[in-house]
Structures are given as structure tokens and as C-alpha cells.
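Self-study notes.
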Amino acid sequence: MARLNLVEAIDQALLQEMERDADVIVLGEDVGRDGGVFRVTDGLVERFGEERVIDTPLAESGIVGMAIGMAISGFRPVAEIQFSGFVYPAYDQLVSHASRMRTRSRGRFTVPLVVRMPYGGGIRALEHHSESMEAAFAHVPGLKVVIPADPYEAKGLLTAAIRDPDPVVFFEPARVYRAIKMDVPEEQYEIPLGVARVVREGRDITVIAWGAQVRVAREAAERLAAENRADVEVIDLRTLSPLDSATLVASVEKTGRALVVHEAPRSGGFGAEVSAQLMERAILHLQAPVRRVTGFDTIPPLSKLEDYYQPDADRVVDEIVGIMEF
């Protein structure tokens, strides 16, 4: 075991997959000589050379378009976008080509591509550096959307994403990059895509979160447990698409209540999809409406207002208490 933060865990996953499979290629702006804006790819170009760790121009559509061509040709590219707010020029490539190629070619071609990018706030950055637009990608058939919550999860999920035959959008919570360290196995391992995890078992209410908000949900749960006010079950989605609805429904059938927590804007956020599925599949077990704690329907604010925008444990605790009193 090694004590790693999320940056180090992702770097280790990339290194080990590149050692295991010569078809794995890393590309993006400054991923080589500078090791990426967050130093996630640090040391890879020295180890594998410029033919496998490629510094690209500042052209997101070109980066992803080139990676799609590589993937169709038999490589396994891992493309880095410096911040998720810069990915929109490449959205067309992902929606119009990467997500459709298996169907378009009737299974002749697949696109084993990973697009990595930091997302979310909490690092005192600007609005294009702090967005949480995962719902826009989860809505696209043919794309898989993965969001790790901690270093252990990041290594296992990224390994699985690189080995997957289909395109994966891999969101990395920037707020967690260096916030925590934990034991991460030095050997390779996979965490299957499409399988949620129960972070904390409870009997009174299910709280569903992903990315940085998993820590927020767990903090709220531990606070309520210490005060003997509620026994909270916390679920980390891990993968938004495909969504592990079965785990969510089973939990709500046990607890009878549910809360979804995410930092993306409320309207049209992925929490709405989770809520709808629970209402459709578990309504006879619900003792209160499914509720949400989210960001607000605004552009992410500058740093002075960032703490007001993002959900925190206080907001989650208040909402849980309200649901319990319904």
C-alpha cells in the first residue's frame, strides 16, 4: 500500500496502464513537458517518450477528434482537457462521433477513448474552471460518465475506463485532488463501471452523491449519528452512465427516504434523473418526497461567493432533518 492523493493515484493508474499496454497514449495541452496543469501526468513523458505522451495545441476539438481517430485505429488514447469548462468545443466530437461510432458502424468499430478533466469548484478558480456539467454528458447515449470520490476509487475506476471498449468521460473533482491521502494498493486493480458503492450503511434515509460531494454527505451523516438524530446511508454513484439504479432502489426500499446532493445547478441536474427513477421504481416505499441539495441556477461565482454556492454539510444536515420531519 502507498499513501496517495487523488493526483498521485491517477498518475499511477496511467503509468501502470501504459506499461501494461503499449497502445495506451496520453495527449493534451501541456501533459508532457509540464506534466499537466495539476501535474497529474508528471513524469510520464520521461518514461514513455513524446510519441506516447503528446503535447497538443490549445484546441480541444482537435485533441478529442484526433483521439477518436486513434481509438478507431486500435490505440487506447487518454485525452486530457485542462478544465471541464473548456471541453465545449469538443462536445460535438463526443456527441456526433465518439458516442455513435459503435452503432454507426454496426459494431465494426469501437472507440476505447478516455477523456479526463478536472471539474467542480472549491479551488478558488474562475467560472470556466469551476463548472459541474456532468448531466450534459450523462444525457448522451453511448458515452459513459465516471466520477471518482477519492484516490482509491480514482485509480480503480480509471484503470477500468482505459480498458473499456467504449468512450468514457472521466470527471476528476479538483477540490479533492490534494485534499486527502489514503491507502491505495500499488498493484493494478479495477473497479467495475456502472456499480455504485454503499459508503456508509444506515436505516433512516439514503443520501446519494458523487465526486467531492461524497465527503460532504458523509460528514453530514456522521454529525447526525453523533447527535443521535438520524442513521444515514450514504451512496457514491461512481458512474452516472450507466447508472446503478438497482443499488439506489434497494437502499430506498430499506430506508424509505432519499436525498440527492450535487454541486451542479439544480434545474436539469443529474439529481433530477436520480429522483425520477426513485419515484418511478420505489414510490410505494417512500415516506417523503425525494429532495435535493445542489448548486444554484447561476454561473459558478468568483471565489468570495464560492462557499455560498457549493453544498456543505450544514445544508445537507438541514435537508435531512426536514425530510425526517415530513
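Second protein, same conventions, sequence then structure:
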Amino acid sequence: MKIHFPPINEQMDLIRRGASEIIPEEELLQKLEISRKESKPLKIKLGCDPSRPDLHIGHAVVLRKLAQFQKLGHQAILIIGDFTGMIGDPSGRNATRPALSLDETRQHGNSYFEQASKILDKENTKIVYNSDWLGKMSFEDVIKLASKYTVARMLERDDFTKRYKAGEPISIHEFLYPLAQAMDSVAIESDVELGGTDQKFNLLVGRDIQREFGMKPQVILTMPLLVGTDGVEKMSKSYNNYIGISEEPNNMYGKTLSIADSLIYTYFELATDVSKERLTEIKTALSDTKTNPRNLKRGLARTLVSLYYNDETAINAEQEFDKVFIKKETPDDIPEFDYSSHPKSINPVDLLILTNLSPSRGEARRLILQGGVSVDGNRIENLNTEININHGTVIKLGKRRFLKLTVN
């Protein structure tokens, strides 16, 4: 079937959106021209890390780029790194990620794809597991592959360089990770590989190894690492500064409003599909001192909830946020805890432990002393306060967590 691709300039406008680097861009133009002339889609590769089964909108940045290639008519290939997950990759870290078993990587990979399907065209995404070819390589094959790259080149990678200069150990098997990732590009004959800026070295190795196997090297496209809600570190569950793509709508909305004003445009550009014209309007509005950034953030929050749920859910999330944080009312739908068999008078530390609102007494004390605990609208600041529990008593923890106590 003949595929009608958009004009090259239209494709490049979308491809360039938010991209950090395209290496080399002239080769991508050539590939797109041949693709359009021969009515043959390019193979766009994205390797997924199965050590992170829960996706957030930081992960979604590169997934959205893959989805854009799909919209242009190209073939999206999602490589589940079930084999490379057993090696562990230190990219962007000063230590290797924990290696996983093959079963664990497969389970995480399935979870990854189900969540990624919120962004990608599921029916037109090809899913492959790199154990299908890496698991079949003999030790002789590995030696031949290793001979195609030097230690000096490997030490050019930033995280390896830092650890080497600091005298920190680097295991030989860590050098095999970028080579294994490169073999993924060889196996599927990828035309373009996508990744975050922290993956640039690995992606470039893929170009070199493809050449060694007599293939036309892939073009690499890197996307920025999205800064998290703290405005400092890249988005990560370990920094607790993330917005999950499967997060409850109310949480997604509320967390979005907490981002720094300086990130508003970046989030619109990288984490949403708003038009080029709308991006221009947002940039203009942000440069106007009369603009209240909070209004733009509310629009961003609605947009994100709509993307992962729908417009109605986004409106409801906004209304619930206004009710709780502006009007200071209690949410309509909050979880309940059956308190019937417990003491009617209790100190706040015991209450948080009993209701599983805190994992430890130390954490409970910290939350109370920092003013993060309220009961029936009254902030609790004294660890020795005796709280009288009634049917319908509401505990508020932090800004967004509520629990209603029921007494039969």
C-alpha cells in the first residue's frame, strides 16, 4: 500500500519540536526524502528501561516524540530491554543500576508498554524483546563485538569518566551495555533512534556498530530531561518530584500547579501536544508582566489531565482542586478508615500510625511538628494533644491527603 507522507518541511517542523539534538540532521533529511520517494516508512527505535515500570511525564517526553513519528507515517519500534536489564546501565548515575532477572524485566516491560499505550498508537507500535537476539549470541560473538570498540572510546562517556577519575570501580560488564544497545540497532536495522540527553553516548555507539556491520548508520535524536516539580532535579520517583501518567487525576492536576513558573513553557512544549501557534501565545503571555502565571499553569494542568484521561475529568479535577485549596472545603470522595474498635481519645502520633498515614513514629512526629497534620480543620502542632474521635472525623495530611474515620 502506498503511503503518503507529509512534505519534508512539515515533517521536520514536528520532528524538531523540543528536540535537544539531531545527529546529523542532514542525514535525517536524506532518509526522509528517500522514505517519501519510495513510500517506505523509517524505522524509529526507542529502547525502554524495564527497571522503571511506573512511567511519569518525564518518560513521556521521548514517547511523545515517538508518537509524533507515528503520526508522520513512520514505524515505531519499542525495544523492551529484557536482556540489557540484566546488565544494568549507569547512564546519568555514578553507579550501576541494579541488575534484574529476565522474568522481572519481562514483567516490567509489559507494564511499560501498557502505560506507553496512553501515548503511542498501540496497534501500529512494533514491540520486540532484545533477548531474542542478544540471548543467542555466543561468547565468540561477544568477543568479536567487543573488538569493534576501544576502552578509550568507552571512557569518553561522562559517567565512566567521572568514576574513573574518582578512582571508583567500573566493571567490565558495564562496557557491554552500550554495545548491547547498539546491537539492538543492528538487529532491527533502525533508521532513527530516540533517547534522552543522558543516552547520547549509547546512541552514538549504535551508529558506529551499524557501520561495522555494513549498514547505513542511524540518526540519533535526543530529548531534554524534564525537570521535576521541585524545579531543580530531573523528574524521578527517587526525588519524589514526579507526575505519573497513571496518577489519579486530582493528584496530576494539583502536582502540575506546584511546578516553578520558569517551567511552564517547557512543560507545554515537551509534555503536551498543543499547537505551535499556542506555544507562541504562551511564550508571549509569559513575557508580559501583566500575566498571572497561575492561570497558565491551570491551563497546563487541565491539558495534562485531558491527555491522559479526558476533558470532563480535567474539569472535575480543577473544580475539586478549587474546592479543597481555594475554598478550603473537604473533598467529596475521600477514603475511609473503620475506627470502631479503637480508643475514642488518642495522641496524634499514635493516630497516624494506627491509620497507616505514616510509616514510622519518627516520620509522624516530623509531620506534626512541621504543621502538616490537621484534624477536622484544626492544625495539630503539639505531640501530646489528645484528639477525640467521632464518626466522620477527617484527618488531613499535607496538602492533598485526606482520611475520614467512621465509628459504628
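Instructor comment on the second fold: The domain at 8-223 is CATH 3.40.50.620 (Rossmann fold).
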